[in-house]
């Protein structure tokens, strides 16, 4: 048996050795897929990148750059590929044996404003929308271009409102230039277009898209500054003389910097810091943290505008209380994960007393104790306009036109009001409304009251007045074009009445108008600059705002009546001791005042 097993083993070994020899002339099947290598690999590049695809064996390479998965019907690679804009390259190869490689992907991110524009030659404003069509379409519908939009946060007027003049009277009034009636030219200088009035349409033509001036926001304001002038013949804007527009477009493409935004927003109303009260050209250059710790360079935050005013689809978050349209429903808030994530909570501050305020007091109220401050490292004043008198004309050599006489001031104490985020506004052709508290005709007001539900807060505001004309019970949208050219107030009023459909012979009177404008900027460092308790309490000695006198915090009845709900009338005590009724005994504010704070879960009846 052993001899038989050994013989079989030897036979098997001989057969094993003879197989390779017998098959030596037969080809072995290729079942290995090819390997394709991209050089360079994907990544971030500051300029155009050239990509080469190489294969480790004879094969055909297929690729796409539009994000789709390539097939054997896709484009065949034959020469190096150059990407000047961000692309995702997907590719695979098929060898002569029919083996298919697994699809590979590389993303080439081209960053920097010069990366996509480095070889451009200026051919006119249409060149932007011809490449960036989807962005132009989004911008065309936005408030920066249309100058009107959803009025969802207005309690008065039609569903769509804005600055642009309109037959339905939805054109906003203000206490500065009143209205753009008859003055589209100068006003249009800050419109993000080339000079033609925008037309509302859901399908703008290529010619309409070409009227968007992308360079107002996307020019490199530091390395290739851009400015424009209006052509007196065509009425359209064109680059200012002496600009190297090739360089401007080659450097363009960056996100807007503060300089871009402030070119219009700081100069609204006719000059630096005139209108907003908390925004000036200094906001783009200062290192003075006491002026604005958020935007100041150096030891400040150096925050760009879009750090708070985020953009989605060219729609910007944020809205002033006096502005009619909202561009985005996204709310701007201080308590974000990136900035102050806990400050809006009931435990976010270091003291219990401060934490009790956060549901009803806006951050700005305590952190902006004055506005229209001067930056300590700028030569110009950042004074803001507090009144505008149209009855007195002054020649402005800088603007080369007549201007109404302004009153300006620095270091102003805000006025305070409750605001729930919506606004009341008087628009062109509306009946004027007299505010008996100020004896002025209202232009805009924040909406809110001390007894509103949670969400309404106390905010700081700039208070602004103007001397304007009133006819047939309406604020006259005087022709600013006539006034700027001639300084003739009477004729400007008459031209304005004609526009409103009021006979120019109609008698008019001169009245005061006023408005409130919410303050959000010029926040100094908190240490040593935030309002102290004595700024508001007690009412008799408050240095900033008298809560009882001006804001409705007074008792709902004499102390003899209020105290008798629980006990006999007692001698008045200081405000801290008096509020032990709330903080220690747990009584709701409504027991003593004309408002309630139900969110605190306090006792609504005495016991």
Description of the molecule:
This protein is α+β, with helices and mostly antiparallel strands. It has 17 helices and 23 strands. Among the domains are: 75 residues, Immunoglobulin-like (Sandwich), CATH 2.60.40; 153 residues, no CATH class; 53 residues, no CATH class. Helix 12 runs antiparallel to helix 13. The chain is globular. The N terminus is likely disordered. Keywords: Heme, Iron, Metal-binding, Signal.
Task: Give descriptors for this structure.
about 600 residues, alpha+beta, Immunoglobulin-like, nine-stranded mixed sheet, five-stranded mixed sheet, about 20% strand, globular, disordered N terminus
Question: In brief, what are we looking at here?
Answer:
The protein is of the alpha+beta class. The chain has 17 helices and 23 strands. The strands form six sheets. Strands 15, 16, 17, 18, 19, 20, 21, 22 and 23 form a nine-stranded mixed sheet that branches. It has a five-stranded mixed sheet with strand order 2-8-7-4-5, with no helix packed on it. The chain has a three-stranded antiparallel sheet with strand order 1-3-6, with no helix packed on it.
